[in-house]
Amino acid sequence: MEYKIGSFNMKNFGANSQKDLEKIARIITEEQMDVVALQEILSEGKGIKRLLEQCVKYELYDWDFCWASPQESTDLDKIKDMIVNDTRGECYAYLWNKKKFKLAEMTRFGQRRIFEPRILNSLSNDVQVDCSVFARTPYYIRLQPLFGGFFELRFINIHIYYGDNRLSSLEKRSIEYDILTHDIYPDLSTKRYGDFRTAYTVAMGDYNLNIYTPGVVTSSKNYLAPVYSYCDGDRKINVLTEQKGLSTLSRQNVEGSDQTLRRYANNYDHFTYSPELSGFNKVSFEVVDAVNKYCNSDFEYYNDNISDHLPIVMTIDI
After folding, report:
1. DSSP H helical segments within the chain, as ranges?
2. 53-67, 93-107, 108-122: which has the minimum mean pLDDT?
3. N or C end of the chain: smaller count of CB under 10 Å?
4. Closest CA to 181 of 150, 211, 215
């Protein structure tokens, strides 16, 4: 069975945001996404609720969503940055097609229990990791298919700290990324709940770090290590971060024959998974070039009415 998983930083999507809801709905449905992790969702997800209610012709009334505000960091520099730059409202959401998925559930002592999506912190009991180092702690959801097998999909939605381009900020980004890949991802991938379904786990979101690609110019020279390997007994486990296409847009007007190309700034948006811990039959990644495909190459319109990020898609076959 094939599924398409999307990730999309929506650039301060609030209750009264003047977003082009129809184009956002077109992107989600025409790209055939089944689940979408969203970042920068404000106002308790009221903008997402408007999207589902108003875009009737795209049948988004058959979709469900959840929203959460991340616990803020205990790092004093990060707290100062969030207050000064007013980035405290950068929250998370998930959208999923109710014809294909529902929240994971299990029966215990004769009672049905439904998994509630949650922010990963000391109260969640899902990971044995101190998540207080994050500016925005990750958002965790478990979904199971309505048809097609005894398994569940586990998703970790993350928006890594940005700050600025000083070395101290870059180090904080790298620390958050390392905790995600070294600790949180392995913990959640191997965790077993009461019904012992086969679990496939993917982290996704805005990492604010590039994957270095020879010949590709990015506006920021801040890179992540795309492979983390460790041993579990005699088995080698690889945790891979993928999706190298440029996914953020620059607001700068540039001159020259390559001006369109140079409007694409960084490959900050990624997926993380382990071939050993989540053995998909096939995996592929892409950036949806929504500026050209849905906005007639109008960068300003897209930036003002949709986002300064392009959506990314991971296609998995189970």
Report:
1. 21-30, 46-54, 76-84, 167-179, 185-190, 259-262, 290-295, 299-305
2. 108-122
3. N
4. 211
Burial of 315 by CB count in 10 Å (0-12 exposed, 13-18 middle, 19+ buried)?
middle
Q: Give the CA count within 13 Å in the CB-facing half-sphere of 169.
A: 18
Report the distance separating Cα 167 and Cα 188, nearest Å.
30
> Does residue 183 or residue 82 have the better pLDDT?
183
Give the residue from 290, 280, 212, 220 showing the smallest Cα distance to 244.
212
- d(CA 128, CA 136) in angstroms, rounded, equals 17
pLDDT for the residue 89: 53
pLDDT at 75 over 70: no
To which residue do tokens 């939605």 refer?
A: 157
DSSP 19: -
Residue 45 phi, psi dihedral angles, 5° rounding = 75, 20
CA dihedral 270, 17, 89, 140 (to 10 degrees): -40
Residue with tokens 């969702």, as numbered in its chain? 41
Whether residue 208 is predicted with pLDDT greater than 50 in this model: the reply is yes
Nearest residue to 172 (alpha-carbon basis) of 134, 137, 138, 141: 134
Q: How many helices (H) and strands (E) does the chain have?
A: 8, 16
pLDDT at position 256 is 45
> Where do the domains of the chain lie, and which CATH numbers do they carry?
2-317 (3.60.10.10)
The pLDDT, as a whole number, for residue 166 is 83
Q: pLDDT tens for residues 231-285? A: 999 999 999 999 999 999 986 654 444 445 558 999 999 999 999 999 999 999 9
- Phi, psi angle pair for 82, to nearest 5°: -65, -35
Count of CB atoms situated within 10 Å of the CB of 99: 12
CA distance 155 to 52: 21
Per the CB < 8 A criterion, the answer to whether 249 and 309 are in contact is yes
Distance CA 3, CA 315 (A): 6
Q: Residue 247 is which amino acid?
A: S
Q: What is the mean pLDDT of residues 159-181?
A: 91
Q: What is the mean pLDDT of residues 74-94?
A: 67
